[in-house]
Amino acid sequence: MDLDETPGAGEPPEETVLRLAREKAAARAEPGELVLGADTVVVVDGELLGKPRDPADARRMLARIAGREHTVLTGVALEEPGRDRRVSALERSRVRMAALTPEEIEWYVSTGEPLDKAGSYAVQGIGALFVEEVHGNYTNVVGLPLPLTRRLFRELGWELLGFR
Q1: Which residues have a catalytic role annotated?
Q2: What class, spelled out in words, does domain 13-156 have in CATH?
Q3: 140 contacts 74 by C-beta, under 8 angstroms
Q4: Where do runs of H (alpha helix) occur along 31-162?
Q5: Which of 58, 61, 107, 152 is most solvent-facing, going by the fewest CB within 10 Å?
Q6: pTM above 0.90, yes or no
Q7: Do 93 and 77 touch, CB atoms closer than 8 A?
Q8: Using CA atoms, how far apart are residues 130 and 146, in angstroms rounded to an integer?
Q9: Which of 131, 120, 57, 61 lies closest to 93 in space, CA to CA?
Q10: pLDDT tens digits, residue range 138-160?
C-alpha cells in the first residue's frame, strides 16, 4: 500500500494517527471483510516522530528522546464495508527513555532495528534496553494496543475470544 503519511498542515498528532489508521483500513477494505488499520507515532515537545528516513534521521530522533519522556500515540480503525460499519479510537502511553551516549545511539542504529520504527526504537526488541518506564498500555508502544483493539472489535459485534 502506498499511502502518504505526511501530517496535514496544522493537523494535531492525535488527528494524524486516527486519519492514517482510517485511511489504511479503508484502502484494504473489500465487501465481506473486516479490516484493521493502525498508525503509531512518537510525540516529544509537540514534534511528531514517525519512522526515520535514514540512519542520520534515526540518530537525530534517538538523541531527541534520550533521557526524557515522550508520548506514543496509536490510532486504530476497523472497517467492515459490507455492513457499512467502521469504528476508530486513539491510545496514548508515556515512555521515559534512558540517557544515551552518542556511542550507544550509534551502536543501536547500526543494528538496523530503529530504521522502520516510529521514534526510531522498538520496545519489543533491542530498544527495550533503553526504555526505563512505560505509563499506559505496553502493547500501544509496540504498535497495536490490544485492549483497545478488542474493544473496537466488540463495538462491531465481534468477540476476539471466539477466534482460535
Answers
A1: 39
A2: alpha beta
A3: yes
A4: 55-65, 102-110, 138-142, 146-155
A5: 107
A6: yes
A7: no
A8: 23
A9: 131
A10: 999 999 999 999 999 999 999 98
C-alpha cell belonging to residue 68: 526524557
Where along the chain do its domains lie?
Answer: 13-156
Q: How many helices (H) and strands (E) does the chain have?
A: 5, 5
**pLDDT tens profile 116-135:** 999 999 999 999 999 999 99
What are the E-state strand segments in 8-108?
35-44, 47-49, 69-80, 85-97
For 97, residues 6+ apart whose C-beta sits below 8 A from its C-beta are 65, 66, 67, 68, 69, 70, 121, 130, 131, 132
Distance, in Å, from the CA atom of 14 to the CA atom of 72, rounded to the nearest integer, reads 10
158: cell is: 465481534
